[in-house]
Write a structure and sequence with these properties.
Chain lengths: 111, 111
Amino acid sequence: MAFHKKEEFGKKEQELAEVAKALSHPARIAILKVLAQKNECICGEIVDVLPLAQSTVSQHLKELKNAGLIEGTLDGPRSCYCINWKAFEKFTAGINSLFTNLKAKNEKACC
Amino acid sequence: MAFHKKEEFGKKEQELAEVAKALSHPARIAILKVLAQKNECICGEIVDVLPLAQSTVSQHLKELKNAGLIEGTLDGPRSCYCINWKAFEKFTAGINSLFTNLKAKNEKACC
DNA sequence: TTCTATTATCGTATATTTACGATATAAAAT
DNA sequence: ATTTTATATCGTAAATATACGATAATAGAA
């Protein structure tokens, strides 16, 4: 009944999984969409758009920040978030690199 | 104390989140890596490589299959899995499409 | 200073995930 | 027909995630 075996895997796998986990909730995808659409940094406008309580949105923002997908600075009573594009590029590149060497060969599937 | 609000978001967000969730555990990333490296379809070789019990690996395979990232066919006592490349392409394209219109403008960050 | 507005954190209930062993299933081998 | 082998499923315990309201914190306005 051991648990939490995640650290027994490779660093690369863990990092990819961590980012994927941050992306694994529609609310967080929606938050990223809002941040991308409004070019300026947003704060509580996100709360107005999502069907969630303010505290829940704040929690989701924290998870996105911990995963490195967004950056945020406190600016008095209001905070300012923006997307970290490099983290996204790193993620998609990481996913692709798992397969690049074989992607072409496998087009016709297997079983 | 309502729960499971995921269905209140858009279909696109839900689909992206679902795939991301399947990718959100290092064991499943590792499984995909193995499936990609061995060009032929694998089954219990995965169990030998991972630090997990057979039943746990089977569970992870099921989740990857449910998310559409792999395909599997039963072949007697042994089963045959392979990667569904199209699902990956759809996923990365979906992630990128959240931002494409603004990606260039934002390079210099915000706050 | 006191009030207001905005965001973060705490506490908590419920849901889901993760992992395992035990058991079922199903084809091949003996 | 029985055994072996490979995989899936069931049951279950512990961990984590999700959501909310209540509360703290912090800067600006009155």
